[in-house]
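step=encode ok
step=design start
structure_in=
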């Protein structure tokens, strides 16, 4: 039987491209309080500060390239005979730069969103509070990022593919942020084999059938080679 593969990726995948992780020692949330830059309340309180935070991250993401792990997952998606669905918690576009199609459950840095009419458009490299929505003209533009306290995107679609998966992999994730941390349980309940590929054990490592704690650029290409070899 050809596997139906669902892959969850997190910040550890893009770390080797030069992007900061969030929950590791020295990560983003050790340097700035998420309550100050990553909640709807923070944006209402100080939109300029929130925009400045995401402007810096957008500039950083635009300056790096996909690594060997991103490229391996794109190769798997292209060459595997069955379905390969990649769901990412990452807000960079490195998967797409490598040639993959992905579901962004936490939004994208390179997209802007109007809080008034829900229109989306490519974000400029720097966003400012005074900028207006190109659709409705209101000064209600924000980064198209799912903040803490908001519902992740595409959850119905994600639940459907998890429930139909025969193989589930989590790559570069901390296992601390829900609902993504619970995906392994949904897939396992549906009968899928499960594997975690992370540099350090995640908070839910014990739930996986198999773990590989090498660097993503080592572990992921080797895993993909194994899958494609049959």
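sequence_out=
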């Amino acid at each position: 039987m050809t596997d139906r593969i669902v892959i969850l990726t997190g910040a550890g995948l893009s770390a080797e491209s030069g992007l900061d992780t969030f929950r590791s020692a020295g990560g983003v949330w050790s340097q700035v309080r998420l309550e100050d830059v990553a909640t709807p309340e923070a944006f209402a309180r100080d939109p300029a500060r929130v925009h400045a935070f995401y402007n810096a991250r957008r500039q950083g993401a635009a300056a790096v390239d996909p690594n060997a792990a991103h490229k391996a997952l794109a190769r798997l998606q292209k060459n595997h005979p069955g379905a390969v669905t990649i769901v990412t918690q990452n807000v960079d576009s490195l998967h797409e730069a490598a040639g993959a199609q992905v579901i962004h459950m936490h939004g994208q840095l390179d997209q802007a969103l109007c809080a008034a009419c829900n229109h989306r458009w490519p974000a400029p490299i720097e966003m400012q509070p005074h900028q207006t929505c190109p659709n409705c003209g209101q000064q209600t533009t924000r980064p198209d990022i799912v903040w803490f306290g908001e519902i992740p995107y595409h959850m119905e679609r994600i639940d459907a593919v998890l429930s139909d998966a025969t193989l589930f992999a989590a790559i570069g994730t901390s296992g601390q942020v829900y609902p993504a941390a619970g995906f392994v349980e949904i897939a396992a309940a549906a009968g899928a084999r499960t594997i975690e590929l992370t540099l350090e054990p995640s908070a839910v490592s014990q739930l996986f059938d198999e773990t590989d704690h090498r660097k993503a650029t080592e572990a992921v290409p080797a895993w993909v080679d194994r899958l494609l070899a049959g």
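step=design ok
step=annotate ok -> Residues 1-19+66-106+151-230 form a domain with the Rossmann fold fold (CATH 3.40.50.1220).
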